[in-house]
Amino acid sequence: MKSPGISEPSNPSRVSRSSLRSQLHEKYRQLKVTNQQNTQPTPSNNHRLSKHSSAKYLLFILPSFGWLISRQLRLVEISQRTNQSNSWWLPLLVGGIFWWLPSPMGVNEQAWHLLAIFLATILGFITKPLPIGAVAIIALTVSVATNTLTIEQGLSGFSQKTAWLTVSSFLIARAIIKTGLGTRIAYLFMTIFGKNTLLLSYGLLITDIILSPVMPSGNARSGGVIFPIVKSLATAYHSEPHDGTERKIGAFLMTTAYQGTQITTALFLTAMVANPLMAQLAQEIAGVHIDWMTWALAALLPGSISLLTMPLVIYRFYPPLLKSTPEAPQMAQDKLKQMGKIRQSEWAMLGIFLVLLLFWGWGKQWGIESVTTSLIGIVLLLITRVLTWGDITQEKKAWDIFVWFSILLMMATFLSQFGFIDWVSEVIGSVVQNLWWQVAFACLSLVYFYSNYFFASKAARASAMYPAFLSVAVSLGTPPMYAALVLAFLINLSGCLTHYGTAVAPIYFGAGYVDAATWCRLGFNLSLAYLIIWTVIGGWWWKLLGLV
Predict the structure, then answer these.
(1) At what angle do helices 480-493 and 437-450 cross, to 10 degrees?
(2) How far apart are the first and last CA of the chain?
(3) Of 150, 405, 411, 479, which residue is least crowded by CB atoms under 10 Å?
């Protein structure tokens, strides 16, 4: 007999989603550290949640809102002059507000304080009052000094396999640049595909594809290898921005080369610095394991279609004035002659490159993890003297990324263990629980993708938004692997939208060949194609592979 005033749920899907969120919540309750104290609902807590309910929405818009404010107030430009204190105020203000706000019901004080430090750190990455590594060290120190974390917890990020995979990949990238192998590969493909402008763009894309498994920095790969070649080609064909000839060939090649990097970063687990982070968060939050081969297979079909489609879209909406480039193959051959025969260091780098691909692809069958493969690669580079120990210690960018990436990964991990991520899932899931998961996930994906307009770093955005949106997507009933893959790939692809959304974008935009309005218009057109390719065709492909 039913109790008065209580009726049976009329929507079965709502019951299953509520049950799923409860299971997700229970899963993370078991992961919490031993010193965590659960917050018990009390009348005062209920009043507090009602009074501060707007805070739960601020959690998801503050990073984007902070970037928008910083751009409007020119904090990014101001922050480049480190002797000024203007760029400090936004991270300190936001961190201070969240620190002193009472934590909502369901979130304990420890998690809430860590969130305040985390948000301040993300905003510090954006406004850059100090180098990013220095901001991360400050965040670590504050976390430990305020007893938000123990010193063991604070330093745990430096032992994460994901962090070591990232720094190893950067060291391997240094070897490719040092030996000149990447440049030689680019010129080789120019001799094959350089007869017309469209084919020339595909030759540059193939170079990017080949380098992307072992170069996790689009800045190093595209800015260090591809961009100089594109610039020299534009100059050779007398296509310069200062004399009105940029549309001759330079603008088209600059655009396709940059946009190609946004796709190739999505192709491999080791192609972008934040990919290993998202793979680890996917395992912790959604319980799905994404290794190197799984990622590569998942990206194979949608990535191939995107790489084939992108130059055609740009060719249609922003065509070059010069369609034929018969001189390009000869130009590439002349450059190869200048480089001379393949040196011993290049042969060694090529052999190690193939070994890395072999072990990344099939090492799991032999019990060798991706990070172990990367370390094996470093050892081989040292033994063959392709890299010296001095090269490794002088790779400042790799060790800088290792420091801030490890600290960021540590904070994201403990936000999950302290129960904040499952609280986020409960809050947002309750708002959209009446929608079909397909509709709800589509809405989440659009917000998630186009929020890149307010960001200038894929890594910062991945750490700020990926765990929250993935948790919500799973709680809505979205297949966990599908949600994890789509959200990870969209982080990479969203770099297409703006001329400031990635580290390498200012290099290409700063060359002056493409104006901001054209850049953003082309990026938006491409984004529509990417969303269909990766969510619809990609979903079908992953189902065919048995991943979802």
Answers:
(1) 20
(2) 41
(3) 150
Count of residues for the chain?
A: 548
| Residue type for position 439 | V
CB 417 within 8 A of CB 32: yes
Which two structure tokens, joined as six digits, stand for 420? 């904040």
Cα→Cα distances 488→54, 264, 326, 338, 442, Å:
28, 13, 40, 41, 15
∠ CA(340), CA(341), CA(345), 5° rounding? 110
Burial 342-357 (b: 16+ CB within 10 A, else e): eeebbebbbebbeebb
Other CB atoms within 10 A of residue 383 CB: 11
Per-residue confidence in pLDDT tens, the chain, 548 aa: 333 333 333 444 444 555 554 555 454 444 433 333 333 333 333 333 333 333 333 344 444 444 444 443 444 444 444 444 567 888 889 899 999 998 888 888 999 999 899 889 878 877 778 888 899 999 999 999 999 999 999 999 898 877 787 788 778 778 877 888 877 877 887 788 778 889 888 988 988 898 888 776 666 677 767 877 788 778 778 888 888 888 988 899 999 999 999 999 999 998 888 898 899 889 988 889 998 899 999 999 999 999 999 999 999 999 999 888 787 788 888 888 888 888 999 899 889 888 887 887 677 678 787 778 888 989 999 999 999 999 999 888 788 878 887 887 788 778 878 888 677 767 766 776 677 888 889 988 998 898 777 666 687 778 778 888 898 888 888 999 999 999 999 999 999 988 767 767 877 887 889 887 888 899 999 999 999 999 999 999 999 999 98
Q: Which tokens hold the place of 513?
A: 């060949």
Q: Would you say the C-alpha torsion 283, 287, 292, 295 has a positive or negative sign?
A: negative
Q: Cα–Cα distance between 278 and 286 in angstroms, integer? A: 11
For 331, other C-beta atoms within 10 Å of its C-beta total: 18
Closest of 150, 54, 44 to residue 417, by C-alpha: 150
Three-state secondary structure call for residue 32 = coil
What percent helix, strand, coil does the chain show, rounded to 5? 75, 0, 25
d(CA 457, CA 122): 10
Query: How buried is 326 (Cβ within 10 angstroms: 0-12 exposed, 13-18 middle, 19+ buried)?
Result: exposed
Where do the H-state alpha helices sit in 418-515? 420-431, 437-450, 458-475, 480-493, 505-510
Residue of 106, 173, 541 whose CA lies nearest to 349: 173
Residues 6 or more apart in contact with residue 361 via CB below 8 angstroms? 292, 293, 296
The backbone region for 39, taken as left when phi is positive above 0, alpha when psi lies in -120 to 50, beta otherwise, is beta
Q: Look up tokens 């081989």; give the residue.
A: 380
Structure tokens at 378: 């470093």
What DSSP string describes 99-152? HHSPPPTT--HHHHHHHHHHHHHHHHHHH-SS-HHHHHHHHHHHHHHTTSS-HH
